[in-house]
Amino acid sequence: MIERVPLAHLPTPIEALPRLSQLLGGALFFIKRDDLTGLGLGGNKTRKLEYLVADALAKGAKTLITTGAVQSNHCRQVAAASAKLGLGCQLILAGDEPEEAQGNLLLDKLSGAQIFYSSKTTRDQVLQEKFNQAKEEGLEPYLIPYGGSNTKGAPGYLNAMIELSGQGLQPDWIVFASSSGGTQAGMILGAHHTGYKGKILGISIEHDSASFSTQIAELVNQTALELRYDWSVTHEEILINDAYCSAGYGVLTPAEVEAVNLFASEEGILLDPVYTGRAAAGLLDLARKGFFRPREKVLFWHTGGTPALFAPPYSQGLLQG
Ligand SMILES: Cc1ncc(COP(=O)(O)O)c(C=O)c1O
Question: Using CA of residue 304, residue 310, residue 313, residue 318, what is the dihedral sign?
Answer without folding.
Answer: positive
